[in-house]
Amino acid sequence: MGTSVSIQDLSLSFGAVTVLQTLNLDVADGEFIVLLGPSGCGKSTLLNCIAGLLDVSQGRIFIKGKNVTWEEPKDRGIGMVFQSYALYPQMTVEKNLSFGLRVAGTPREEIAKRIARAAEILQIEPLLQRKPAALSGGQRQRVAIGRALVRDVDVFLFDEPLSNLDAKLRAELRVEIKLLHRKLQNTMIYVTHDQIEAMTLADRIAVMKGGVIQQLDAPQTIYNRPVNRFVAGFLGSPAMNFLDGQLNGVSSPVFKTGNVSVPLDRYAFEGNGGSRVGPCVFGIRPEHIAFGDAANTMPFATDAEVEIVEPMGSDTLVWTKLGGHNFSFRVEAEKTLRNGDPIRIGFDPARASLFETQSGNRM
């Protein structure tokens, strides 16, 4: 499989502010890459650099092996879908779809063929004679995607295309975009701050912070083995539990926080695992906590007390204290728990993540 988009040592500064720092990223042919991160992390800026809407300060961008660093956007072989639909209100859907092709002087038969194909893929054939004002938000976003589709390009760039839609529509269009990618097999680079979108759509996720890619990997790898505390805290809903404490013992390591000691002989340390002595942060996800009788089958178990119960529909999030820290876990919706109930909780430390307090890196 060849490389579709290659970004080499890319940096971008606005005056004294560095937005992207010596960034490297290779996207394979037909791959769906999601750029994920909080507002201001540089993900949309990176997408705009690939699209040619921003001039880079240094570095190079290759699309299909061709150096496009200084090429015009129209010459890069990309189709872009923005957060705002940016449709011409006075034109019908059909005219909106064909506008770029007409300007480029594409033959009429070819335009008709491409519009028919895009309309069929996106299921917007009945809407072709309507104007944008007569469309719902989801239909408008489909037309915006169609406008990129008719260009017949190698690489599609999506800049938070679903963030203007309500939750139900977002979920529906997410499925459609995934099906679209399966049908077309084109390379897609997709920007979002929504981790559910990232986890469900991506072949690989690039988690960004401060203009730097923190981790680039398959969604499940990032979820289960985050490289640092930032990535661990950003991915996952409800969020990972973090406990500040102390790591003691080299041959049989133990994590201590408050009155709680967790044996770590089952935890797989990476490399030398730091010094294995000193301050560290213990992280474990709410869904990896066992409750009640199941807790006693775990390598670590302790007694606790229910503090807050949050019903979520399909399951319930329960909050308690562990070693003086707030600590949440998930239980089935049928379980009835009340504030003040005594409970037994347990987990397997092998499923946890351990981070250095200073650097935040995984141990």
Automatic annotation (TrEMBL):
User: Domain of life here?
Assistant: Bacteria
Entry's Gene Ontology molecular function annotations: ATP binding
Q: Which Pfam families match?
A: ABC_tran, OB_MalK
Q: Which gene encodes it?
A: ugpC
Domain called ABC transporter: residue spans: 5-235
Give the protein name, as stated in the record: Sn-glycerol-3-phosphate ABC transporter ATP-binding protein UgpC
Tell me the InterPro entries matching this sequence. Answer: AAA+_ATPase, ABC_transporter-like_ATP-bd, ABC_transporter-like_CS, ABC_transpr_MalK-like, ABC_transpr_MalK/UgpC-like, Mo/tungstate-bd_C_term_dom, NA-bd_OB-fold, OB_MalK-like
Q: Which organism is it from?
A: Mesorhizobium shangrilense
Family per record:
Belongs to the ABC transporter superfamily.
Q: Which UniProt keywords apply?
A: ATP-binding, Nucleotide-binding, Transport
SMART domains noted in UniProt: AAA (SM00382)
Q: Which PANTHER family match?
A: MALTODEXTRIN IMPORT ATP-BINDING PROTEIN MSMX, OSMOPROTECTIVE COMPOUNDS UPTAKE ATP-BINDING PROTEIN GGTA
